[in-house]
Every structure is written in C-alpha cells, then in structure tokens.
Specification:
CATH topology of the largest domain in chain A: Tetracycline Repressor, domain 2
Order of helices and strands of chain A: HHHHHHHHH
Largest sheet of chain A: none
Radius of gyration of chain A: 18 Å
Shape of chain A: elongated
Helix content of chain A: over 70%
Number of helices of chain A: 9
Number of domains of chain A: 2
Oligomer: homotetramer
CATH architecture of the largest domain in chain A: Orthogonal Bundle
Strand content of chain A: under 5%
Number of strands of chain A: 0
CATH superfamily of the largest domain in chain A: Tetracycline Repressor, domain 2
Structural class of chain A: mainly alpha
Chain lengths: 193, 193, 193, 193
DNA sequence: TATGAATGAGGATTCATTCAT
DNA sequence: AATGAATGAATCCTCATTCAT
C-alpha cells in the first residue's frame, strides 16, 4: 500500500506516535464504517480514534482517501485468505474456504458493502498493488478447480467475484444464524459443473 | 397501500388532479432513484415531475415515506410477477421465471438496491398489504417446488428472498451481458436439492 | 447583468419577495465587503441581510459569484458616472470629474480594492456587458481629451484605469480629509501633456 | 528591531545557528509573501526555509509578528534607498530616484501591498526604529525639494508616502512594461508646483 | 391547493498555533 | 533547540423540510 500521507516522502517512515495514530484512525474508521456505512462522519471517526479531526486529515487528504485505504486493506486481507486457501491440497476445498471467508468478511462490513456497491469493480486489476496479488491468488484457485473439472467452465475471475459479492449481500440479510451457511451451500452447489 | 396524505381523511378519495400529481411524483421519483440512488434530491424529483417541492410534501410527509411507497409499489409488481409465474404448470419453471425476473428488476434499480441494503428486511411480513400478497404468492411457488422435490428443503421464504437479493446484487456487477445469465444459472442450480 | 440564479430561466422574473431578498443580500454583502473586505463571512452577510445562509446560496451559487456580482454592479455604477461626465462640455472637466468620483467610490470600498488587487484586470474588455459600456464611455472621455490636446498622448484606457486605481489606493490611506483632494490634484496635473 | 523571541532576554544575543535560522525563515517568508501574498501558509514558509513550523514559532510568536518583521525590514531597506538618494546633488533628482525605486520594490511584493492595504499606515511614525530613520531621510528629501521650490508645497511626508503607495499599486496593474515608466512620470509631473 | 423561496442544522475541510518527542 | 504531529475553531456549502404567497 502506498503511503498517502502528504507530508511524507515515500522513504522516510512515520514517527512512532504518528504511525500509532494512523493505525488508530484506520481502526476507528473501520469500526465506524462497519456500523454506520459510508456516511459515518469524520468527527465521529476522530472521536472514536481519540484524535482531532485535523489529525485524520494529516494522514488522509480526504474522506474518500480514507475509505480507499480501508478498501485496500480489506483487499490485502482478502488476498491473504486466498493465499491461505491455496495451501489446502484439494482444489474445491480451497475455493470453498475462500468463498466462505471472503463473503463473511464483506457481510459484516456495511461500509465495505456500500463502497463496493457505489464504486463497483473494486477488484478490477490495476486498482492497486494488493489487488494484483488478490487477482493472482484467486486466479490460481479458480485454475486449479477448472483443471480438476470441479467448477463450471464459464465462471472466471470476474464472475466469481460478482458471485461472492452476491453471497455477501445475501448473507447480510440473513435472519437466522444458520441461513448464512445455507446461502454458501447454495452458491457452492451452483458453481459445480 | 393506505393513503399517507395527511390532509386526507382515510375515506375521501383524492381529487382527480391530485391523483395525477401523485402518480407523476412517484414516476419521477422512481426514475431519479433508479439513476441516482437514494440520494437523489427532492428538488430533482420535483423538477422531473414538473411540480414544486411543496407538492411532493403534500403527498408524502417525508423523503423516507416516498421511498417506502416506491418499495411498496415494487413489492406489488413483484407479487404480480409471482402470480404470473404461478400460472405455469411446472413448479420449477415457475420458480425460475420468478427468480430471474425479480432479480432483474432489482438489478436495474439502484435506489431499490440501496434501500434494500440500507433498510434490510424489505420483505418482512407486516410491512404492508402488498407484501402479504407477495409472501403468499412466493410461498405457493416454493411449496409447489418442495412438494415436487425439486428444491432444497432448507430454503424457505426468508432464505429465498435473501438469495434473490444476492442474485440481483451480483448481477448489478456483471461486466458482460451474458454474465447475468450465468449468475442466475448458478443460483438455480444451487437451489436444487 | 446576467441572471445568475440557478433556478431561474433567463426569462421568468423573480417573485417579488425573492427580488426583494436578492437586493437585501446584495446590499448586505456590499456593506460587509466594504467594512471587512473580501473575507467577510457568508454567515455575517446573511445576518446583515436578515436572511438564512441558504437563501444567499439560492441566489448566488458561490461566494465568488456574489463578489463578482457586486463588482459588476460597481462597474455599472462607474459606467454611469462616466456617462454623466460625458455631458459636461469641457473635455478636461469631464475626465476630472470621472477620475475623482471613480477613485472616491473605490477608495471607500475595501472589498472592491481587494477584489481589484487580487483579481486584477477588472476592467478588461470581455469581463461582462457592463464593462463594455464602461470601456466605451471612458474611451470617449479620453478621446475627447486627446483631441483637445489636454491629456498626455501615452495615456490610453489601460493606463488611465491603472492610475485611477492608484489614486484610489493612495486616497484610502489619506489621513487628513484634504489629502484626498491633494492626491487627485497631483494625478490630474500629472496627466496633462 | 527588538528581539521578539520569548525565550530570549533582551540582552543575550542568539546563538549562531539560531541567528542563521532566523534569517532563513525571514528569507523564506519574504519569498512566500511576495509570491502568494499574505495568505501564504506557515507550513509553506517552513518548508521553504527547510525548517519545522515549530522553529518559526520559536522566533516569531505569531504569523502577524513575522509579517511585521518583514515590513520592518522593508522599511529599513527603504530608508537605505532614501539615504542613497540623499547623496545626489540635485534635490529633484534625488526625490525622483527614491520614488521610482520605492514604488518598484513595493510593486513587486504582493504580500507587502496586501499588508499595506490591510493594515494601512505602515509608515506612521512610532511603528519602529527603522521607520524613524525612514521618516527622517524622506523628510530631508522633501525639505530639499521644498527649499528649491521644485515640489508642491502641500505635499508633506504623509502625502508623499500615500502617493508612493498609489504609484506602486498602479504599477502592479501595469500590462505593458513601459506603462510603469509612464505612471512614474505622471506622478512626478503631478508633484511639481 | 400548488409553488418555490427560505431556513438552518450538519458535514467536509483548512490552517494558525500548541506541544510531545 | 528543533521537529512536525496534533488540535479544533472557523468556514464554505448542501439539502431535507417548512411556510409565505
């Protein structure tokens, strides 16, 4: 993730306290966006972080930049999940694991769902470096499945990510705790050739 | 839908021109929400309807009430689609038709997707009379499928509507035109027992 | 002056109350800018006008637009002064009158002086229709003087306006009341061939 | 100029590095104000000086104090110009030289023009010690001219400085390079008895 | 009854100044 | 003594809602 702090040259690392604050802001923002969605207010985020608004703006030039950064972090986490899944020997198990965990993350995050809905195409190649990693990892998961013949041939990366998004959205409307499990099953069953 | 206009006694029907205005407002609002999502502005809606803002507020006490009314109308339309589907002799064909058409409607309507995402639980019983009809019709579609053994037993009304929402959301992110078709296939395949 | 009110088509005149408010806003803004310069606050202007901030924004999309409008009005007034001066039979008397009155107006208006200083080139042709009138009128004043041989040949419109601005600025720093008169005399003497 | 640094007793001179920093800050501030006017930002000045903002505040308690100091320096320079001019044998030549050079300096300095315009009365006696020197030198220039009968009798120090300011402001709006020369000529002609 | 002008709380962002490192 | 991160009051502007015409 590139450093967006305007006062920082790419080289010089942030002072210890600044780095701490930056993280507190990101954590607070994530919480706020998870709970209140994208229109959580900067003041609220600042309050949660125990910081003045100005401090947020020292680290992120714009509310949008803050959201972007969170998305970027989520992409990084998601790529890591995919990497983890790749360790499983069975191709289908690996894809299942990734789908479940990815959808679950997104489901729990209202801001992320909104960002995804508003901006669309979050996973597009070229959005950022973390994204490239994600695309690559998920591509491998899909390829393995295709080779093993356990996945519909017409489901590529774009289709898979849209479906994962759909699963997350369905899950976010789950009433009963078991429902989520059912939704994932439905999706996975539907993905078989 | 009950008349929400405050100046109206429940009994007295609206004057002809008032009824006309009401419909123009609803049409304009639907267009606006479809295009711009939930944060379309009241002024914009008024302009589209060829009406002053004040007139909107004469018919709907609140922006939220206007959105609710559109949702209600959408539910009515959706119930009609379900009723139509019920005419098909084959249980599975009927359900498929309903799922595809319902998801498509929602997919095309940004405001509806947002409303659904923000408010959640749009289909809850008790939201309004139209909803009761919808619940009943879709219930029949599902029952027929269950009886015919062509639908997973653990998918009831709540599950089905969440999945339909998921399908709509996935479809709204479709890049290629064919993708939508694929998503519907995946869902339908997944719904088989 | 073109109508800048966004909600208005050029044709339809403002409602009586709106026109009244528009004028009150302009008056209040002029006062505020005269006293506090260009960074008078919108809230302050609204308060002076006895109006909410929103009302200002209904009439002028931007603080800058409000300032521009005031400048435009000042240009109109200035053009009128020039027109009046043109009625005098003596070429030099006419120019003198115009210089004195124009400089005096500007001198009294801190906001105008700032606008002029910040933006520069207020009198440039093409800024607005009123400006064209002004350029034309002052051009005539100067031509008459040149023909009569009572004005330095190297002082054209651009030079004259810069000098008038200089006079206004000098005058705005006058300590004694008579000083202003002296400054004008100096300028006028200097302008003779 | 008295030392304004709060940590300094009036007596103790600044350490060598502190003095160096102080000058770098002043130079940077002058550049910034010349280019961007009075609303150049403290951070920008600090950056130009290669110094942290905090360091500026160690030397100057307030942005205003920094501006004041620059004005004071400008006054010193101006006094020096006047002193130089006094060396010329001809009274009128001396005054002309001083007027031209002084106006030119001010013309080139946007911040100075603003400061002058905003604060007014920069040359008032009593503003600072440098000012006294300036008042004295310019007083001599004027006296010599009065004695030689080459200057309007009603132009004293206050009038002369206001006019010089006016000339600077006029010049700052000069389009053509030659215009400036014309303005100075006009002023000088006007100053003759 | 319809209109659209007015309202004003609210929200993002800036920047002089303070203060912990 | 220097640094630059943190602060938060201040400021412009938006938009749902109210109300005079």
């Amino acid at each position: 993730m590139p450093d967006r702090t305007p006062q920082q040259d790419a080289e010089r690392p942030l002072r210890a306290d600044a780095r701490r604050n930056r993280q507190r802001i990101l954590d607070a923002a994530r919480d706020a966006f998870v709970e209140e969605g994208t229109d959580a207010q900067m003041e609220d985020i600042a309050r949660r972080a125990g910081v003045g608004v100005g401090t947020i703006y020292r680290h992120f030039p714009t509310k949008r930049a803050l959201v972007d950064e969170l998305v970027e972090q989520w992409l990084a986490g998601n790529a890591a999940v995919a990497a983890e899944a790749l360790e499983l020997p069975d191709a289908w198990e690996a894809l299942s694991l990734y789908l479940r965990r990815g959808a679950e993350d997104m489901m729990q995050n209202r801001g992320l769902r909104q960002a995804y809905g508003d901006l669309g195409k979050l996973f597009e190649e070229g959005v950022g470096p973390k994204n490239r990693e994600l695309v690559s990892n998920v591509g491998k998961l899909l390829d393995r499945c295709h080779e093993a013949g356990v996945l519909r041939a017409d489901v590529g990366f774009a289709e898979f990510r849209a479906l994962m998004y759909g699963l997350a959205m369905a899950s976010s409307n789950a009433d009963t705790p078991g429902a989520q499990q059912i939704y994932a099953d439905v999706f996975l069953r539907g993905l078989r050739p």
